[in-house]
Amino acid sequence: MEVLITGGMGYIGSHTCVEMIEAGMTPIIIDNLCNAKAEVLNRIEQITGVKPLFLQGDIRDEAFLDSLFAAHDIHSVIHFAGLKAVGESVAKPLEYYDNNVNGSLVLARAMRKAGVKRLVFSSSATVYGDPQQVPITESSPVGETTNPYGTSKFMVEQCLTDLVHAEPDWSVTLLRYFNPVGAHPSGLMGEDPQGIPNNLMPFIAQVAVGRREKLAVFGDDYSTKDGTGVRDYIHVMDLASGHIAALKGVGEKAGLHVFNLGTGQGSSVLEMVQAFSQACGKPVAYEICPRRPGDIAECWASTEKAERELGWKATRSVAEMAADTWRWQSNNPQGY
Ligand code: NAD
Ligand code: UD1
């Protein structure tokens, strides 16, 4: 079964490709490499023994997509490609809406022309904004986003929802990821952020490996268990298997399907620091700093719907997330 993976050279896409190959599927990757390295392909091959077909190109290039769909018998598409840095999206909204929203529209148009109407979209818990209650269920309100990145995810969700209403033979699955962390247990693949990491786990990992002096903990005065922000961290391999479960469970069923992919457990910043210190066998230096503007106090997923309808549940612990991140980071201190 050939499945087109847009953004398949990136962090989540590459781990999903490994899981797909191991599940007997054939991923075909397209990626413009704006945030990924070509070396990823060799690592996928090292792990699985299979080098997937990779075509370098942009999802906004409709002629490129048309020729790809003409040349391959694509069963479905998992759409990871996009820009994802919140701060950068505030500075460059046009670039973010063009890449994320326009890119998704070009892709959907090319799919329709080719008669490929099964799409899984990488959305984010960011569409829930500051949640009124936790755990967050899929029917919680969406759209109160606070930055162009989050708004772009919400807009794509809306476009795809309208598409399914208008053309009910489409199968569209919106997967709302909580906080993906961790790495492949081999230590061969992991997250490789360019520049200063925006997210907690890669920052901690770079402190542990000596690339950065200390972590700034953004606020310890939230009304959470220890005053620091609480999130639902999910191991990237669990997230990857969630995509396989979605493809198998609803990927051929017409209509709109929406699932949270999280663990249902919240961990604080200091708990993550502690887990990482245990994994790497040394303390991770940190300093309490002011809150980061736009941050929420806490958020975690209700996982009931995915469990019930997809038979999928995350199984890996925070200790495994930290251990696998450390194996990746210490084996590849400068990334790929
Ligand atoms: P990533 O940056 O590692 O991967 C995205 C990939 O898409 C990169 O390899 C990049 O080169 C490619 N790409 C970007 N624009 C493209 C374009 N126009 N044409 C072709 N390729 C393009 O990011 P990731 O962490 O793997 O995230 C994958 C998806 O999941 C994104 O859509 C992201 O918004 C979403 N998501 C990520 C997180 C997270 O914390 N990592 C959380 C929620 C949702
Ligand atoms: C961020 C994005 C969100 C995106 C998600 C993807 C913001 C406001 N939100 O969410 O849109 O979908 O990443 O994973 O950027 N922290 C520190 N020090 C750091 C980094 C983070 O203390 O150097 C804290 C944060 O305050 C937060 C927690 O760690 O409490 C997690 O932060 P982060 O990894 O950036 O994820 P989110 O804020 O959940």
From TrEMBL:
<keyword id="KW-0520">NAD</keyword>
<comment type="subunit">
    <text>Homodimer.</text>
</comment>
<keyword id="KW-0119">Carbohydrate metabolism</keyword>
<feature type="domain" description="NAD(P)-binding">
    <location>
        <begin position="4"/>
        <end position="324"/>
    </location>
</feature>
<keyword id="KW-0413">Isomerase</keyword>
<protein>
    <recommendedName>
        <fullName>UDP-glucose 4-epimerase</fullName>
        <ecNumber>5.1.3.2</ecNumber>
    </recommendedName>
</protein>
<dbReference type="InterPro" id="IPR005886">
    <property type="entry name" value="UDP_G4E"/>
</dbReference>
<comment type="pathway">
    <text>Carbohydrate metabolism; galactose metabolism.</text>
</comment>
<dbReference type="GO" id="GO:0006012">
    <property type="term" value="P:galactose metabolic process"/>
</dbReference>
<dbReference type="GO" id="GO:0003978">
    <property type="term" value="F:UDP-glucose 4-epimerase activity"/>
</dbReference>
<dbReference type="InterPro" id="IPR016040">
    <property type="entry name" value="NAD(P)-bd_dom"/>
</dbReference>
<dbReference type="InterPro" id="IPR036291">
    <property type="entry name" value="NAD(P)-bd_dom_sf"/>
</dbReference>
<dbReference type="Pfam" id="PF16363">
    <property type="entry name" value="GDP_Man_Dehyd"/>
</dbReference>
<dbReference type="GO" id="GO:0005829">
    <property type="term" value="C:cytosol"/>
</dbReference>
<comment type="similarity">
    <text>Belongs to the NAD(P)-dependent epimerase/dehydratase family.</text>
</comment>
